[in-house]
Amino acid sequence: MNAREHAGPVCSAALLFFALLLPPVKHALEASMTMQMLVQIPSLIVVGLFLSRAVPARIDAVLAGWDHHGITGLVLATLAAALWMLPRMLDASIAQPSIAAAKYLSVPLLVGLPFALSWPRMGFIVRGVFLIELIATFFRMGWLYMIWPDRLCNNYLLGDQQRLGKYMVLIGALLLLWIACKLLWGRMDAFVEAPLSRAPDAGVQRLGPHAGS
Amino acid sequence: MPVLRTLAASLVLIVLGGYTLSAATEGFQAFTTETARRIEVREHPVKIPAVELETASGARVDFSGFRGQWLVVDFIYTRCPTYCSALGGEFAQLQDRLAGPLAQGKLRLLSISFDPGRDTPRQLAAYQQRFRWRGPGWLAARPVTADGLRQLERAFGIIVIPDALGGYVHNTAIHLIDPQGRLVEIMDMGKPDQVAHAVLRKLAL
Hints:
- The complex is a heterodimer of chains A (about 210) and B (about 200).
- Chain A has helices at about 5-20, 25-30, 35-50, 55-65, 70-85, 85-95, 95-120, 125-145, 160-185, 200-205.
- Chain A is an all-alpha fold and about 210 residues long.
- In chain A, helix 2 (about 25-30) crosses helix 3 (about 35-50).
- Chain A is globular.
- In chain B, helix 3 packs across helix 7.
- Chain B is elongated.
- The interface of A and B includes residues 69, 75, 86, 89 and 152 of A.
């Protein structure tokens, strides 16, 4: 890839990132727990996905040597994402500028970026485990938010927390439905062609006969 | 080789991630801000700033004027239909259970309004009357300035947010201040027996 091909994704990432930083946008997205967890944090992950497309193939090849089947990237993304699932961190990211900066930097760079780089390297089993665990997390946290009698975040109302719980269970159910359809009528390998893979030719290469092993 | 390198890199990440998560949860104990502030206060007592208050009788007192006494503090707004009513009832019960030290002046109960615009001394007095106020051991007061309120909220870790009904939602708890003016313990509401017990134990030390 040459510099011009990198410019597109970098621009998209920068545009989205600075849009999320705009005080009215930031304020609106942090006004409810539902918006922060289902819009703000996912959007920051998308910034990382855009950035991954600007990583030169040379560097990606070096990373691949440390990222067998995408495991290392998945571990990093999972751990960093776990931090931003703590109700305490959601509160702190509103009240403390240093924690807000940590959120705005770590979610794109330690969740979205490593995940997007590792996804093409993951085989059928790793992807399957990841997706099932993702769905289970939506169900577990959604259920918790729906039934928990007290507010988990000091900055958010109980009704907001319960609404978030319902949405998370719904998202989990939709993901499950989508995967069930894939398993019944599609091939899991076809995920490699998903928009996450960075370059079409690289995708085809990874699609080789051992991609799913 | 890539397998071994991946294993090594993943292990390093798991150790670092585990350390970070442990630090962010006070050793996997505090997942919410409420639990965290209870643990933090117990380990590092917080000095309460000398904020000026106006009491239900209209008198002005400085927070530093309570030095030498233990203080049991809660945060309220008098229009509150839910938690603050419960807190008011709880303070009424504490008046009975802690009658001894309250009469000796070793201890005071203090309800601070975070809605000073509406909670005039008259409103504060009416609030106390609703909950069987019986003597000067229980003060209700409002911060005199908006800045004073902010300082208190920050020191105590109180977060007040508007609810959908024109009122407020806030983290409710019972706070214990030592005679040096430091916040040393935060307790759950709804358990007046435990609060009374904890206060008596501190007084006996």
